[in-house]
Amino acid sequence: MTAQESAVDTAVMAGGWTPYRPVTAADLHVFMEATEGMVGVTYIPHEVATQVVAGTNYRFRCQTRQLHATGAIVGTATVQIYQPLQGQPEITRIDAQAPADALMGGWSDFEAPTTQEIALFDSVMGNMVGVRYTPVNVSTQLVSGTNYRFQCTTSLPMAGGDIEGSAMVEIYQPLEGDPVLVSITTPDVMAGGWTSYREPSAEEVAMFSEVVPTALGFGYVPVKVSTQVVAGINYRFLAERNILLPAGFPAQPMTLIEIFQSLDGKPHLVGIYPSND
User: Fold this and answer.
1) How far apart are CA 241 and CA 239, in angstroms?
2) Given Cys at both, which of 44, 152, 188, 240 links 63, Cβ 3.0 to 4.6 Å?
3) pLDDT, tens digit, for every residue of 28-44?
4) Tell me: the pLDDT tens digits for 207-218?
């Protein structure tokens, strides 16, 4: 044995890895035994490095293929397998590399959804009530299954006309079983946030007058309004008291009045909150 061969053997026995080499029939047997039953991604080993421990570690360089609605996504991965002195080999680690980050958890570019993707979307969202979601674009992420992010237009039917908006709907399709809704992300106005205050429309003033009580001598005049879309619409009106005041009497502070309008169009008074200013 040469000094160089002795040094290589010493490194291998001390936990060092051999250089990569073509896969032999014996290596392939270990690989197939360890990966039997795996679904989703297909791994095709073409090179291997080994490390002698209490048994043997294998690092297989593989080509990967994962079927997707629009075709197969091809990438590369390193699959590490441990073969004990006795017993079955087992996978200890998979490091995947893929073009466009598809197998690294990255999202694809948004593009128009396919017929299959629209069908998947409808199977999850078709029975929802209230807001209507229409998918416009989709981005996908390959995991153990597939994540979908659908850019959608939204429409909330109301008595005075539909309220249009937008939303991001995320759906997970496992390798086996039905797709599930993960989340719905919307701009602030659709996500429970309140709009900026603005002058109320004629319809909003009419709704305000319908539900806000008047007392002997004064009522309320809505000056500004902010809205919040939920399963219906919340309104926050800043209102002035409609009362005749003597000259020089300080102006009355604004009153905050909250109203909820349900999906059937019927408004309900939530509360009247006079300012303490």
Assistant:
1) 7
2) 44
3) 889 988 887 665 667 88
4) 888 888 765 456
What is the per-residue pLDDT across 68-99, written as a single tens digit (0 to 9) for each?
544 456 677 888 899 988 888 888 887 766 44
Tokens linked to 177: 């079983």
The residue type at 207: M
